[in-house]
Write the structure tokens for this entry.
Amino acid sequence: MCLSAFMAWKTNHAQGRVHEAKSYERRHWDEAHQRQASSLPLLIELSIFQHGSTGRSPFRNEKRPTDKKILLWTKRFRREEDIPPLLSVEVLKTAHNQLRIQICYLMIALTLLGCVTMVISGKLAAKREDTLLKINTEKKAMWRMERQKEQERMEGSKE
């Protein structure tokens, strides 16, 4: 849409009919041009990075030991000797993402296991009539007795 508006404006301008151009097309082109001008540096950076004129290769020569282990854990390769000397960055990113997903699944499973364990232990405590109220009252009674004994000792030592 923006390109067609620009071409219509350019054609009318070249033929000397600037005022005959539709105001909507000219206004639309001006708004699009202003939006594009504000994001132009970002577009230049992105195009330079995508076209590889930064001198960076899309392959990574040096694979860290963790990268090799991740590739093996995600079952991308069977053995460490099978890993080629050059790997695409996309292959490494995919392996990292798969490992992240596996770790998330593990965390979900451990959370569910913890919840089930807490429910079971709570039911067993309820059968034994081991409630928090009972435990707290016993603790407070024990603290009161200790405080009374300390006060008696302090009164006995004063006399």
In short: Residues 39-52 have pLDDT under 50 and may be disordered. Residues 73 and 99 are 8 Å apart (CA to CA).
